[in-house]
Amino acid sequence: MNKSELIDAMAASAGITKAAAKLALESFLGNVEGTLKKGGRVSLVGFGSWSVSKRAARDGRNPQTGKTIKIAAKNVVKFKAGSELEGAVNK
Known about the structure:
Pfam families: Bac_DNA_binding. Belongs to the bacterial histone-like protein family. Keywords: DNA condensation, DNA-binding. This is HU family DNA-binding protein. This protein is an alpha+beta fold. It contains three helices and five strands, in the order ααβββββα. It has a three-stranded antiparallel sheet. Strands 3-4 form a two-stranded antiparallel ribbon.
């Protein structure tokens, strides 16, 4: 399912217009992104939670040449599925 298909499904199931569904989805995504940028955590009970963790700088290898390269430190977004979501997927 892509973004436009999700908007269509949200509009149909909630009985709202596609424009309102698009606005709601974009608001949700913007708020999640803003919270994660500030280093916060977003948790939806039963569905899952998003958090940011720091990945340290490390040495890696170029697979073509075998030379050692430096991989920079960066922040990564992690998602952990909630128990209800895991249960629904594993039925």
